Amino acid sequence: MQVGRAKKAGWSWRIYVILTDMKLALKITPQRSTQYANMTEMLALPELLASPLSKHIQEVTATTLGGQRYLIATVDEQMLAEPQHLAILSHLGATSEAYEYFDLIGSIQGPLLRPIEPRFTPSVPLEMTETRRYKGKTNEIFTRVLFNVALFAGKYGKDYSERLRILDPLAGGGTTLFFALAYGYDAFGIEIEKHDVETTAVFVKQYLNTAHIPYKERDERGRKAGRRFQFEIGPKGQTQTLVLAHGDAREADQHLREVPGGSRMHAIVADLPYGIQHFGEISALLNQALPVWERLLLSGGTIALAWHATRIEREAMIELVERHTRLHVRNDPPYTQFTHTVDRVIKKRDILVAVAEE
């Protein structure tokens, strides 16, 4: 940036600013615990570089400002000129607030930050992803990063603002599904634990009632394939679909029969159970599940899998996906840079992303 002065009549001055480059300061999402703060910082850079913003980024460094960690990204001016880029900044999970960054303005020494207004209004409050606490729940920031990476990798990364369809075949308590709803998407979840499906349905109703969000519910209790709840959420003409199905992830196609809009998905996001620590157990699940999940993907859609990688190497997971599907595994940076420590038990967790042929 260059700063100069031009003299006007009398004693007044006009300051003019010529931008030669532009820097952004992206605040690493604050976390209460050191363990999650470390995790979030490790995820922030690869999430940013996996996003559609990467083509506008010239350089990224990490720094501390006021005791808080930031990514400082040098970008071209076109990035802030396009509203969709600002919307993506607001969608990122491992970074929260975004600012323009100045080393110097006039005679005032920086660093100086100017807030960038968010360009994202969630369809349901993001609080919905955080409110419900249950045993085994994954940190919401990681879930959001996993969700984003799945969408960024495929054909539909550029359609971020459209109404997409997301499947979590290992839905647990529904955090991934709630992120999908917040982003304006339709959400479909399958969970083998009947109790989890039923309690999630209860939570959804209680939350929507408390938040005064209109919805309609259909409880398909008598289905041979297993109990299924269907929700239409939102005001008339702007509804989103949420489906919660009790059943086996390896039979996902059966559980998505006759759902609104059909069974094809833009992205499939699954956080594999952390209790699975041996490749044989992962293999037994994915050998049968992967071909089914692949059939549910639209052309150019993506699958993103997170797993406990302490004992199961990335190469073994890649071989498994490539043996049972025709999906293209993204085994290039930044998709190879999501490995991180969770806690003393899960010393290494990783993400694998694969894309369906167009």
Automatic annotation (TrEMBL):
SUPFAM superfamilies: S-adenosyl-L-methionine-dependent methyltransferases. Gene3D superfamilies: Vaccinia Virus protein VP39. InterPro entries: SAM-dependent_MTases_sf (IPR029063). This is Uncharacterized protein. It comes from Reticulibacter mediterranei.
